[in-house]
Specification:
The chain has 15 helices and 16 strands. It is an alpha/beta fold. The chain has two domains: about 5-65 and about 365-400, Urease, subunit C, domain 1, CATH 2.30.40; about 65-355, TIM Barrel (Alpha-Beta Barrel), CATH 3.20.20.140. The strands form two sheets. Strands 1, 2, 3, 4, 5, 14, 15 and 16 form an eight-stranded mixed β-sheet that branches. An eight-stranded parallel β-sheet has the order 6-7-8-9-10-11-12-13. Strand 2 (about 25-30) and strand 3 (about 35-40) form a beta hairpin. The longest helix has 18 residues, at about 185-200. The site of 3-[(4S)-2,5-dioxoimidazolidin-4-yl]propanoic acid has 14 residues, from helix 3. 3-[(4S)-2,5-dioxoimidazolidin-4-yl]propanoic acid binds near residues 71, 287, 314 and 318.
Amino acid sequence: MNTSLINARLVTCQPGYEGYQPSPLSKVVIKDGLIDAVGPMEQSIEDDDQSLSIDCEGKLLTPGFIDCHTHLIFAGQRSNEFEQRLNGQSYQDILNAGGGILSTVRETRKASHQELLDLALPRLDGLISSGVTSIEVKSGYGLTLEDELKMLRVAKDLSQHRAIKVSTTLLAAHTLPPEYSHRSDDYVDLICEEIIPHAAEHRLADSIDVFCESIGFNLSQTERIFKSAHQHGLPIKGHTEQLSNLGGSALAAKYSALSVDHIEYLDAIGVEAIARSGTVATLLPGAFYFLNEQQHPPIELLRAANVPMALATDLNPGTSPFANLLLMLNMGCTLFGLTPEEALRGVTCHAAKALGLSESRGQIAVGYEADFTLWDIQSPAELSYQFGVPILSSRIVDGVRIND
Ligand code: DI6
Ligand code: FE
């Protein structure tokens, strides 16, 4: 049976001016979970007589929101470090003293699959309440073969419990685990020779990520991991230029990265490199805000080079404990100077591209997956403008209306 969404004002997020202008009252016909036809209400669109109709009552319908960068799976919390930072210690000091990412690694290693799932679901519900229908989830708090795969399995399991589509990313190269202290190349061997092959073989990862930073992995280690990813048929992403400019983004571009993320310290050469490779620039204003960073990502250069910009929560316990994608639209505009249109594209069409899904998600267009978010607002700028007002009307995933 078909489903029709009727009386919807569409913001399609297709390329071009029209993609941001709300349409007159329209109808979307859905067949087998895909968009089959789109047109104004008065135009007769061929659809099945038995079609089920969902009346959108003149509300605004966007593509389902996509949070393309999260670290949703972890145990414990780090409010103590938040206090330490406010008492004068830096994020790097805390990591060097064995805290930071490593304190979450200790907690996550101890937790079972079920415990990690139970901890993740309330956070996922936060994202869902901000209109999200697809998420990316990274590993990176296990740092052993077994614990990294455990995290990826929990991520895959989320869609058994909520109406959510999940892309998984292996981030074994998040930080050096204590057992490899002073042996970082040996840990990179483990990643390349065991963890990536296993994750690929068991289809647990859709992409491979590296934290390329002085407190993470250097350029030659990052390149080895990118090469191994490609050998196993997996695309790459990078946490690059977050705290300094190492050239990780240009390296990622050389390996046709889907996205480079954070990129506050990205320079003109890096922008040129990612523009050539068609890599998405993923902006993470939650981490910038929470760490009280001063260095802004090079928005003007990215615009001038026509680099697609995505926007995501980076939801994690250390640098962005925020389970709400609408907050990132507001922060993207207020902190980084994005326009509300750029912010909206950042969580729809460009977020889809950052996951390698630009042909199937992130736009309201024939042939695309029937994932939508229905909003009780008049203009799309309201998505970036207000925060905390309950504007979500409902989500539709694969053509099915979800009552969250
Ligand atoms: N950059 C970040 O902001 C997060 N990971 C990364 O590579 C931080 C993760 C954490 O502090 O737990
Ligand atoms: Fe991150």
